[in-house]
Automatic annotation (TrEMBL):
Region named Disordered: 1-22
Nucleoside phosphorylase domain span: 31-260
GO biological process, one term: L-methionine salvage from methylthioadenosine
Annotated protein name in UniProt: Nucleoside phosphorylase domain-containing protein
Lineage: Eukaryota, Viridiplantae, Streptophyta, Embryophyta, Tracheophyta
Residue ranges that the Swiss-Prot or TrEMBL entry lists as coiled coil: none
Length: 271
């Protein structure tokens, strides 16, 4: 049945929103936001895409250490942000709190068509991961938010499917697996049980937080994660992480470049 004429002339707000989202999905992607947690991970991509640090910091609150690199690559406006060095401790501001804040502020400021959370992760050998493998995460969840009350438990875990991009997967040689996020580099026995329940192949400290913010603000997000250390292996995680960081970062950056090359000239619905 045809809709009454009135609803065509004055579509309900939800219909307008859906139409706008549909339109956004079929126009070429023009602005992307790459979120990275560590300077070592970001530096090679900054040079690869010839990005420059934006001296104008007015889009961020005064005094925050967050850094925005920007530039034009092919037909894309690229914004690469990392939360910078912690003002008190001088180390990279890794983890969910900084990642959420910088993602939120950057989506507000740059209005990206797509968010790419790119970084390193621990991998589970039992799930087929090896050091140097690069994954596109199929789902994300938290493993250290324990709220044993019905429904709050599910809120804490916050499991989400990521934006599906079958064509990127068809084109690029990336592995696929679930990503589990928590604020610790090591793994407590509880974390281990929760990660297993999340059916995760990967463990990081930012992914599910970036996913939460992107979802909240209705921006599609994808997660490119390279394995620096084997969580269920023999080597201590911190040692293995540091040993492999630079080498694995090269694999990560190559994969991100391939993803960005693929995205260029495409619409969200082509991914
Ligand atoms: N010692 C490091 C600390 C980095 S924390 C330093 O030199 O600064 C680890 C970073 O790598 C986080 O951003 C996290 O997302 C990722 N990561 C790599 N392996 C991980 C693992 N096994 N567990 C959790 N996060 C991991």
């Amino acid at each position: 049945m045809a809709p009454p004429e009135d609803s065509v002339a004055n579509p309900p707000p939800e219909a307008e929103e859906a139409a706008a989202a549909g339109e956004a999905n079929t126009k070429p992607i023009s602005t992307i936001l790459i979120v990275m947690a560590m300077h070592t991970e970001a530096a090679p991509l900054v040079s690869k895409f010839k990005l420059v640090e934006d001296p104008d910091r007015s889009m961020f609150p005064k005094g925050v250490p967050w850094v925005r690199y920007r530039g034009k690559y092919k037909d894309l406006d690229i914004n690469l942000v990392w939360p910078g060095k912690d003002p008190n401790f001088g180390v990279d501001s890794v983890g969910t709190v900084s990642a959420s804040l910088v993602t939120y502020a950057s989506i507000q400021a740059f209005n990206p068509d797509l968010v790419i959370d790119a970084g390193t992760a621990g991998g589970f050998r039992a799930k087929g991961a090896s050091v140097g493998d690069v994954y596109l995460a199929s789902a994300v969840a938290f493993h250290d938010r324990r709220i044993p009350i019905p429904v709050f438990d599910l809120y804490g875990i916050g499991a989400k499917q990521t934006f599906s991009c079958p064509n990127i997967l068809k084109e690029l040689n990336l592995k696929v697996g679930n990503l589990s996020t928590g604020d610790s580099l090591d793994m407590s026995p509880h974390d281990e049980t929760a990660i297993l329940a999340n059916e995760a192949t990967l463990k990081d400290m930012e992914g599910a937080a970036v996913a939460y913010v992107a979802d909240l603000l209705s921006v599609p997000a994808i997660f490119v994660k390279a394995v620096t250390d084997i969580v269920d292996g023999e080597k201590p995680t911190a040692e293995e992480f540091l040993q492999n960081l630079v080498l694995v970062t090269a694999a990560l950056d190559q994969a991100v470049t391939q993803v960005v090359d693929f995205i260029s000239g495409k619409c969200i619905s082509d991914l």
